[in-house]
Amino acid sequence: MVIAKTIKHVRKIIFAAKQKNKTIGFVPTMGALHYGHLSLVRAARKNCDFVVVSIFINPTQFGPKEDFRKYPRQFNQDKRLLEIEKVDLVFYPSAAEMYLKDSSTYIKEVYLSEPLCGSTRPGHFRGVCTVVAKLFNIIEPDIAYFGQKDYQQARVVKRMVRDLNFPVKIKIFPTLRERSGLAMSSRNAYLDQKARGDALVLFESLKLAKKLVKEGERDPKKIINKIRKLIISIKNAKIDYVKIVDVENLRPVDKIKAKVAVVLAVYIGKIRLIDNVLVDANSN
Ligand code: AMP
């Protein structure tokens, strides 16, 4: 497994792999890897000849009051995990390598980025699109792997790729959960034992939504109200948003007729967690 810290080094290795007609699978991450990340790496390993993982905590997708500084960093452990998964190349650049001091070009997707996390985290998806576009230009993958856990992010990236004609196929894979149901996330490292218990309310909320739809409820407002009640019953939890949205345009639906996404963002203490589930009115 090669670890490359510079764009030049990556390009050299990718050039050699392409010369041998290898298909390149790419998993972008911010490190502090867990099995959710590794499930994407395994999918890439299964489908592609040459697997690249990037580890880069992208400063441009964090707001000024967000957790960029204290975001978990554990490169040595990440490296060991990726070696076991037989990754070919890890791209581990510094912020200075990725962004020149006077860098002044950004990519902004303006429709799918607007609601949900986009409204609470202004600039977040601009940072995501910019870094993903840069990584695609550096690595030139055939297929890139994203998690449904960050549903809006995956949709935004897919739209960017479509609109800007990147020759990359985007694949989205299901959310991996701990046995308790808690969605795996690097940010779970911030939670103490009590907060971990409180954080189960996210998954409980999604299960409740699924159950209500299965029982025939088609009014999103009623479902959202029940979820809100459940969440506010937890003292340490504060709702950022709870929405039931169209899976394509991410806008709230008036009635649940087909496939919808139940999406939520909840603060457990100071830690903001997100989760979602796709529910199909016709097949639940
Ligand atoms: P991050 O390191 O948080 O930027 O995540 C890197 C990639 O892993 C993104 O595509 C995420 O959606 C994905 N991911 C994060 N958590 C999970 C999870 N629990 N299950 C599956 N994929 C995940």
3D structure, described in words:
With 284 residues, the protein is an alpha/beta fold. Helices cover 38% and strands 20% of the residues. The chain is built from nine helices and nine strands. It has two domains: 2-173, 3-Layer(aba) Sandwich (Rossmann fold); 186-280, Pantoate--beta-alanine Ligase, Chain: A,domain 2 (2-Layer Sandwich). It has a six-stranded parallel sheet with strand order 1-4-3-2-5-6, with helices on both faces. A three-stranded antiparallel sheet has the order 7-8-9, with helices on one face. Adenosine monophosphate is lined by residues 29-30, 36-37, 39-40, 146-147, 149-150, 173, 175-176, 183-186.
Features:
single chain, 284 residues, alpha/beta, Rossmann fold, Pantoate--beta-alanine Ligase, Chain: A,domain 2, 2 domains, 3-stranded antiparallel sheet, 9 helices, binds adenosine monophosphate
**CATH class (first level) name of the largest domain:** Alpha Beta
- In angstroms, what is the radius of gyration? 19 Å
Low-pLDDT segments = none
CATH superfamily of the largest domain: HUPs
Strand order of the largest sheet: 1-4-3-2-5-6
Largest sheet: 6 strands, parallel
Q: Give the mean pLDDT.
A: 98
The CATH level-2 architecture of the largest domain is identified as 3-Layer(aba) Sandwich
In summary, what is this structure?
This protein is an alpha/beta fold.
